[in-house]
Design goal:
By secondary structure, this protein is α+β, with helices and mostly antiparallel strands. The protein contains 13 helices and ten strands. A five-stranded mixed sheet has the order 3-7-5-10-9.
């Protein structure tokens, strides 16, 4: 079952946190009870905190953009894990909120001789909190330059989306819940500029399809490019085309929310760069091979036909176009194996991991694995290569 994810609400969070800071800055100086401090002293604290934090955030984020550029150049230009981290933007929102708090409080206490001591204390505590968030952002930025962290993050992200989309099969065999999608419906054409389908928001579409008695069959996958005039879906029934278009969340970059092939694509990119003659890093190639086969092992016991979305009444109203087992194998292994044909270390690892994968996949998925394993043997024979034993062989 698809795990739905709403659109990111970065702008809403920025507006909400900034507005909260301004409101709080307007209210705190009005407190009359308790200990007080001279207004001049409190003003100094607010000016130092507000302007200091804003300047610090500006410098830090400028440096972080260089880190992101270096990471994308080293690993893959499609790698956007760091930019998509919500805490990157929340940290910025909290810093702007603290600036709004300091400025509004500074203006509110004008003319007063003394103000509550809670005002500078809160400003100081909020500044420490923002500095802690900035430290967290810096740690993530530096981690994004480390190969092991990147590969682990991609593996975990890929595993999460796989587990969210594809259910495990029953003990009696694979579920065939994904019935064949009907054909012959009214085509819904993409009328907007070229873009990438990032995810599908299906809650409202499912309700609309149920209300109109319609069936929607998507003909485009999450992560694919949509050109003007392309068929987005086919609709059987009276459902309006705008309802289908509204369910399509688009953007420039692919995201992990509902795109199970993205992790395989990024891992293959990293492996291709590592095995290129300019880099020649077979150790990274071995790690990438482990990650790709590891994700395929996660997929092996799962029902990849689960593309039917049922309404509360039990009627299938939406059919999704989901990747097949062959798609995952192609995306993750084909280019990587070709690039490693002259690397004994990577081929040895590929032979070991694919052998293990062949033992665990269902019979109907074995041919795709066996053909790649035979490809590895052909590369070894053609190059008369003497395979090297990997440093960390697979456990039995």
């Amino acid at each position: 079952m698809i795990r739905f994810r709403a659109r990111r609400i970065r702008r809403a969070e920025l507006v909400l946190i900034t507005a909260s800071g301004i409101v709080l800055g307007s209210l705190l100086p009005r407190i009359q009870a308790g200990a007080t401090v001279p207004t001049a002293r409190a003003g100094q604290v607010l000016a130092a905190v507000g302007l200091g934090i804003l300047g610090l955030v500006t410098v830090i984020y400028s440096l972080l953009f260089l880190v992101v550029q270096s990471s994308n150049t080293t690993f893959s230009p499609r790698l956007s894990l760091f930019q998509d981290d919500p805490w990157i933007w929340r940290t910025y929102a909290f810093a702007v909120g603290l600036f709004g708090f300091s400025m509004s409080a500074f203006l509110e206490m004008e003319g007063a001789a003394r103000v509550t001591v809670a005002l500078p204390i809160f400003a100081f505590a909020a500044a420490l909190a923002v500095i802690g968030l900035i430290w967290n952002v810096q740690s993530k930025a530096f981690a994004s330059l480390q190969m092991n962290w990147i590969l682990d993050t991609l593996h975990r992200s890929g595993r999460e989306v796989i587990e969210a989309i594809y259910p495990e099969h029953s003990v009696d065999g694979f579920s065939q819940s994904g019935s064949d999608a009907p054909r012959g419906g009214r085509p819904v054409l993409w009328t907007r500029p070229q873009t990438t389908l990032r995810q599908l928001e299906l809650r409202q579409l499912l309700r609309a399809a149920e209300h109109s008695g319609s069936v929607v069959v998507f003909r485009v996958r999450v992560g694919e490019t949509m050109w003007p005039g392309a068929t987005v879906a086919e609709v059987s029934g009276s459902l309006d085309d705008d309802a289908v278009m509204a369910a399509c969340v688009t953007g420039v970059n692919r995201t992990f929310g509902q795109d199970p092939l993205l992790a395989f694509r990024l891992l293959a990119d990293i492996g291709l760069r590592a095995l290129s003659p300019a880099v020649n890093d077979p150790g990274t190639g071995v790690q990438v091979m482990d990650s790709v086969v590891g994700l395929l092992l996660v997929l092996a016991p799962r029902d990849l036909t689960a593309g039917a979305i049922n309404s509360p009444s039990g009627v299938t109203r939406i059919h999704l176009d989901l990747p097949t087992w062959a798609d995952f194998v192609d995306e993750g292994l084909d280019e990587l194996l070709v690039a490693s044909r002259n690397s004994p270390l990577v081929l040895a690892r590929a032979m070991a991991t694919l052998t293990r994968l062949a033992r665990q996949v269902p019979p109907d998925r074995l041919p795709d694995v066996s053909s790649r394993l035979e490809q590895v043997h052909e590369y070894v024979r053609a190059g008369s290569l003497e395979l090297k034993k990997p440093d960390d062989p697979l456990p039995d």
